[in-house]
Write a structure and sequence with these properties.
Number of strands: 0
Number of helices: 3
Shape: globular
Structural class: mainly alpha
Strand content: under 5%
Number of domains: 1
Length: 82
Amino acid sequence: MSRITGVSEQKANLFVRLAYWFSKKRVGKVVEPLAVSAHHSWIFRGYGAYEFALEQAHLVEGKTQSSREHQSRDIDRLSILN
């Protein structure tokens, strides 16, 4: 439990309510750091961008893995030819 209480849905603006809705959809509840960061708009935006980037990070890993697989296949083909 944090020392600062989060912004309630009744006092939240439209943007914060939208983020709360996404949080409930993804996690099942409004996560506490999201509610606390809603007190300051720039921190709230930064936290949202950070969480979005973390969620999308697995895509980079997959692309990296895919290119490694292609490289290893190319190396295998070259070793067969030699």
